[in-house]
Specification:
Layout (H helix, E strand, L loop, with lengths): L1 H25 L1 H10 L7 H5 L14 H10 L7 H6 L12 H6 L21
The structure holds calcium ion.
Calcium ion binds next to loops.
Length: about 120
């Protein structure tokens, strides 16, 4: 009786750790690929949005930009520069601005409320 309870607790703890580490290992590299590819500044709104660039807040659920990237990845688990380029000309959140234009303006391409000239600081060349 005691051993079976102990085994259950141990199993739950190990399962929890495996799930936690899988999540921790799976998510940050995608953000890093995005940050490196677009040279996202440390103090930019996109850097602050972090996972929110592709996800709804910090939830696993994807926003429209994340969904477009997922489609471009075609089942691959690793984000690539090619996939990022494939969705640059799209307007994922349908706010009238292409994803690349939003990224250049430091606005969120997956958030309808975030668009150049409104919430983001547009970069002038
Ligand atoms: Ca847009």
């Amino acid at each position: 009786m005691m051993t079976s309870k102990l085994f259950c607790k141990l199993l739950c703890a190990v399962s929890g750790l495996v799930l936690l580490s899988a999540t921790a290992l799976a998510l940050p590299p995608m953000g890093q690929v995005f940050t490196t590819h677009y040279k996202v500044g440390a103090k930019s709104a996109l850097k602050k949005a972090d996972c929110g660039v592709c996800h709804i807040g910090r939830q696993p659920k994807l926003n429209p930009y994340g969904e477009d990237l997922k489609a471009a990845l075609n089942g691959a688990k690793e984000l690539t520069a090619d996939a990022l380029k494939q969705v640059e000309s799209k307007d994922s959140d349908k706010d009238g601005f292409k994803n690349l234009d939003e990224i250049k303006a430091d606005t969120n391409p997956g958030d309808l409320k975030s668009k150049p000239g409104k919430t983001g600081k547009a970069r002038k060349k």
